[in-house]
Amino acid sequence: MRGSVIGSGSFGTALANVLAVNCEEVRLWGREPAVVEAINTQHENPAYLKGIPISERVRATNSLQEALEGSELVVLATPSHATREVVAKAQAFLPRHVPIVTVSKGIENGTLLTMTELLEDCLPEEFHPYLAVLSGPSFAKELARRMPTVVTIASHWDKVAVRCQKALQTETFRSYTSTDVVGVQYGGALKNVIAIAAGMADGLGMGHNARAAIITRGLAEITRLAVRKGANPLTLSGLSGMGDLVLTCTGELSRNRHVGMELGKGRKLPDILADMKEVAEGVKTARSAHELEQKTGVELPICHQVYLIAHEGKSARTAVVDLMTRQPKSELSGA
Ligand SMILES: NC(=O)C1=CN([C@@H]2O[C@H](COP(=O)(O)OP(=O)(O)OC[C@H]3O[C@@H](n4cnc5c(N)ncnc54)[C@H](O)[C@@H]3O)[C@@H](O)[C@H]2O)C=CC1
Ligand SMILES: O=C(CO)COP(=O)(O)O
Fold first, then answer.
1. Are 167 and 190 in contact (CB under 8 A)?
2. DSSP secondary structure letters along 248-270
3. Cα(76)–Cα(51) distance, rounded to whole angstroms?
């Protein structure tokens, strides 16, 4: 079997390593020539996964045609804001009748589309029955070190999710299938915004009580919006919901939590992002969450404050006071 991964950042590279267990050859596309060169010559991606060996079955390339030719499974692992542009270039070379799995966690700014909706928007209909999404608690650095990781793979077509599940099954990587494409993607995208809030609370030194409250009430607002969009609420208690939310809000490896911590310490967003090579998807997703709140009328109080702090210059301390002094509510009121 031959597999392809489009995007040679930390997660794309880590997943190429997983795919390499079951594939004779994995082609990994990257736009950075130095990364491609290092993967092919040193079997390492020093820019994104320093010190972690990459299987010799993984061959990196700057050519989308070479990456996709003869592939039986395509993984799309670019940051969500780059997905439309990269897929437009890749479309001519995409193989027919093979699963196309997005692992990007984001909601496109402006269109407010999830990644599978974006793919449906920019790919011809013949590709739509092969679309899937992989999401769940999976730090690339742990995955790449073959530390046990369990995720969800969702597709409207169960057979497609099962094909992906089989291709990616290893002794250290396990997945559960689902048909709740909406729930899996809202959970994966919005947990990054909540993780920024959790990081802020830590940066402000607010303690464990505050962090637990952010995780719990964060899950409530993610679930509210996802259900409005058609999700099964149980999905949000699963790996791609609560699982990934807990990981990202508490894990030292999270880039989104890191952004939040720095904001909590009073640094400005452009300065924080200038010091980071890797993507923190929650920054852009906070904008989409803000627009979704306005458009749907579903209350997203934590996401709303993250948007104001990150994009409107509000102070994190004032945001905490505003959250704490919201109108009193019943926990079961659904708002
Ligand atoms: N790193 C992780 O632990 C996990 C990441 N993800 C998701 O995977 C997606 C990719 O993230 P990472 O691999 O972590 O990214 P990264 O931050 O490690 O690397 C970003 C990659 O995207 C490329 N890139 C940036 N802008 C681009 C553009 N305009 N066109 C083409 N390529 C571009 C960079 O060259 C680099 O290869 C994100 O949506 C992220 O949320 C999902 C699960 C875990
Ligand atoms: O999505 C992730 C783990 O599942 C990675 O989270 P960060 O992007 O915050 O590092």
1. no
2. HHH-TT-HHHHHHHHHHTT--HH
3. 24
| 191 labelled catalytic | yes
Question: 115-122 and 181-203 helices cross at what angle (nearest 10)?
Answer: 130
Please name the fold of domain 182-333. N-(1-d-carboxylethyl)-l-norvaline Dehydrogenase; domain 2 (1.10.1040)
Q: Is 9 in the pocket of ligand 1 (CB under 6 A)?
A: yes
59: tokens are 């061959």
Minimal-distance CA residue to ligand 2 atom 2: 139
**Per-residue pLDDT tens over the stretch 249-280:** 999 999 999 999 999 999 999 999 999 999 99
Q: Cα 269 to chain center, whole Å?
A: 20
Our answer on whether the CB atom of 164 is closer than 6 Å to any ligand 1 atom is no
Q: In the chain, where are the structural domains located?
A: 2-179, 182-333
Instruction: List, as residue ranges, the binding site for NAD(+).
Output: 7-12, 140, 255
Say which ligand is closest to the CA of 48: 1
ipTM over 0.95: yes
Query: Predicted confidence band at 333 (pLDDT cuts at 50, 70, 90)?
Result: confident
Q: Which atom of ligand 1 is nearest to the CA of 106?
A: 39
Give the number of other CB atoms < 10 A from CB of residue 177: 17
d(CA 259, CA 268): 10
| Secondary structure (DSSP) of 80-94 | HHHHHHHHHHHGGGP
Q: pLDDT tens digit string along 176-218?
A: 999 999 999 999 999 999 999 999 999 999 999 999 999 999 9
* CATH architecture of structural domain 2-179: 3-Layer(aba) Sandwich (3.40)
Nearest to 133, CA basis, from 93, 169, 187: 187
pTM of this structure: 0.98
Residue 272 corresponds to which tokens in the numbers above?
Answer: 């924080």
Q: Report the alpha-carbon distance of residue 272 to residue 274 in Å, rounded.
A: 5
Q: Distance between CA 228 and CA 50 in Å, rounded?
A: 41
Separation CA 276–CA 9 (nearest Å): 13
Q: Residue holding tokens 């299938």?
A: 177
CA of 279 to the centre of ligand 1 (A): 6
